[in-house]
Amino acid sequence: MAVVEVVQLLVSPVHRYMGRPSEGPAEAAGPELVRSVEVRRNLGLVGDRYYARPAHRDAAVTLMAAENLPLDINPHTDLTLTRRNVLLRGVDIDAYVGSTVSLDTGAGPVLLAVRRPARPCAWMDAVIGPGAQRALRGKGGVRCSPLSDGMLTVGQAEFAVVEERNPA
């Protein structure tokens, strides 16, 4: 078990990166950064754009390591630009694809199956800055499926690997 930090949480009811990056992102429907979020097993984050969507059930929650943000390209890069849901500091989350992990921010552990990498798209160059998509390759975060109900909050958390990576 390791002590990590949940730096930010993003819950957005709308998909803001649609169409061509040159047209710019859609407007936010309101504040997207939250202090806490309810996680529902097999459904995702309550209120998020991917919640209970059949096409996203195996990847409804995205996590990213704060250490991988391309701050050299844009020092203001955060979840509102990368569109990931959970920003963690203190763990290389990209290394856990195929594993089941636990994240406990104080209300009990939330189990997440780390399904696959969250690959950066061309939008990253448009909203963060030129070179961001390339800078995030291989470290753009992971797509997860929640295996338990629970709550996540910003702040200190306990991170543990519950089940090791499945051999490919």
Topology (elements, then pairings):
Blueprint: E1 2-10, E2 33-34, E3 36-40, E4 44-45, E5 61-65, H1 79-82, E6 86-89, E7 100-104, E8 110-117, H2 123-127, H3 132-136, E9 142-146, E10 150-153, E11 155-163
Parallel strand pairs: 5-6
Antiparallel strand pairs: 1-2, 1-6, 1-11, 3-4, 3-10, 5-9, 7-8, 7-11, 8-9
Explain what the structure shows:
The structure is a single chain. This protein is mainly beta. It contains three helices and eleven strands. The chain has helices spanning 79-82, 123-127, 132-136; strands at 2-10, 33-34, 36-40, 44-45, 61-65, 86-89, 100-104, 110-117, 142-146, 150-153, 155-163. The strands form two sheets. Strands 1-6-5-9-8-7-11 form a seven-stranded mixed beta barrel. It has a three-stranded antiparallel sheet with strand order 4-3-10, with no helix packed on it. The longest helix has 5 residues, at 123-127. It is globular and about 40 Å long. The model has no long low-confidence stretch (mean pLDDT 90).
